[in-house]
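Work Package 3 (structural annotation) set out to generate three-dimensional models for the target panel prioritized at the project kickoff. During this period the team completed the workflow that converts sequence records into discrete structure tokens, so that structures can be stored uniformly alongside our sequence database. As a representative example, we reproduce one entry of 408 residues exactly as it appears in the project archive.
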Amino acid sequence: MKRNAGPLHDLRVFDLTRILAGPTCTQILGDLGADVIKVERPGSGDDTRNFAPPFIKDDHGKDTGESAYFCSSNRNKRSITLDLTPPDGQDLARRLIATCDILVENFKVGGLAKYGLSYEQIKADCPKLIYCSITGFGQTGPYATRPGYDVLIQAMGGFMSVTGAADGGPQKGGVPIGDIIAGLYATIAINAALRHREVTGEGQYIDIGMLDTQVATLTIMGLNYLATGEAPKRLGNAHPNIVPYESFATADGNIILAVGNDAQFQRFCEFAGVPELASDDRFRTNGARVRNRDDLIGRLVPIVAGHPSRHWLDGLEALNVSCGPINTIDQVFADPQVKARGMEIEMDHPETGDAPVRLIASPIRMSATPASHRYPPPTLGQHTDEVMEEILGLDEKDLADLRQRSVI
């Protein structure tokens, strides 16, 4: 096992998650130094191993059979295969859990009880265990037993209703935001529970519902509704409370203009050659600009379109007016700031030969206990023997017997 001096370096995670919300959480824990034991079904593994193409490539440019989707959220984990159906598999799971600090799972509500692995069934034997369940709708309420998928959560949680063009239909996010946000909230809750355990010596149960976390991300849109009783409408790339704060077409492309205060608006107007707009009572303050949004944007559209993107990007940056390009994904990874921050990493992978697998780095920067990238996304069951020998002391004969009976 590779050791790391990260903030969670002495902790072990029993990872019973699959797809994206749970794996996002456990990857972050792994990046912070935890020893994450990812438990997968023998023969098939995490569903996302089959969410492909694309696959990562080997050193000959050929597909490896390892999906890019799986690799996106399973770094810094050791994969074991374990069938939870037979009693021997359940016994091995309980023995491994007894050595762990954290258990994260995203089975349907009650799904682990039939294996004797629900929180209520194991908490007496593992009183210090932090047990986190991530489901679509949480453990209680009328929807608790329903399966939850990202696009469904985006729809039911209101996110789609405020995403998309003003004159178009509702749109989901370009990335699975419902899954990702749930994974982030789960990670935050687990770290808070670790602090509680440090103080009290007690573990606890954490119930994360994706619909809950999606509702929490409504933030300003949610509060705009609660403050007025009126459901916000889609504004495309515009901001509901700040103007101008949206995308504009230039003479040769598109940019984002994000004028955050009245002083920036004045500087923008001077650079744009329309200083009179900044002193116009209809536009002088942000509140006035919000109330007269259509009139102002109608005036700005032809002005911005009269010059190429570089004119605005260079000129407004020099004046400390927030403005930026709308990058494609390839442009993101070529961006000098992204490169300087090391947001793309390369790791050796057992299936890629001499060609490393390219991954997105952890964005967490800590001065004393930095995040690290120790393990590439594992192949199915890659670490089964290693984990069983290291943690449970099983020998080759034990492992051969378990494998012959398809327990591992």
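The chain has a mean pLDDT of 97.
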